[in-house]
Amino acid sequence: FLRSTLKSHHMNFPKDSVVVLFALSLGLGLLTPVLAQTLNEGWTQPQRLTGAGFVGKHAEMVVDDDGHAHVVWIEWFDPVFGTSASESYSTIQYSRFDGEIWTEPITVRKTTGGVMIGDLSNCIDTRSVLYVGWTEGSKIGGVGVQPCCGPVFLSKVASEKATNLSDWLQPQEIQFPAFRIDLTADATGRLHMVFSGIRAEVGVFYSGSSGQDGDWTCPLPLYPDLPADQLTERIQLELDGEQVVHVLWEYIWTKHPWGG
């Protein structure tokens, strides 16, 4: 595991198997600390969110100031399930927990022609705007490691309207050749993104939104020395109370996909 830490306000630079996503919730007010460790009282019954026949991947959850949980995830319909490569597609699904139930998932994005969604991330800013970023591209590599590397797409919606597909903003395409990504928003509403690249753009990079017009700073290489035979398997970006940006990443050797 590797980590990098930077001051937010100083940044002025220009396993594939079928995964089923379940969600459950706990009313903490119903439990004492001891009961929380010993009993199931207060927990809701698990609810399946993923569709049947899909590979569910990279689920992400954030909670807004009103206590509503927002979940996004990727669903793949892959040739291994009986279609040709050109008929492969993937979707981004969204569901919200309003304190009582999870809403019926809606499809925020759907790809065609064999293009697959590789990774995604979401965050909520100080105005309760929900952002979802993701990567799209064609799968490469062999069995076990088949990453998608392509541009980043970013969409947003007011969190209270996120269950209405028509309220989602048309995705913005950002020409970063990303494999893994993570997003967060600081106290001023500025977005911060870290992403990892493969192929010709190996390494870990940072960029921040630089205005209301959707511009992003030139990617800053945080870890440009990643060998070409290694992949960043996971990347995480967090802001602390002092608006310090912390970045954590994990990589694996492509010849040994289960070791990192």
Describe this structure in words.
With 260 residues, this protein is mainly β. Helix content is 2%, strand content 46%. The chain has one helix and 17 strands. It has one helix at 33-38; strands at residues 2-7, 22-23, 47-48, 55-63, 69-77, 89-97, 106-110, 116-124, 129-137, 150-158, 172-178, 180-185, 191-197, 203-208, 220-223, 230-239, 244-253. Strands 4-5-6-7 form a four-stranded antiparallel β-sheet, with no helix packed on it. Strand 4 and strand 5 (69-77) form a beta hairpin. The longest helix is centred in the N-terminal third of the chain and has 6 residues, at 33-38. It is globular, with a radius of gyration of 19 Å.
Jot down its keywords.
1 helix, single chain, four-stranded antiparallel sheet, mainly beta, 260 residues
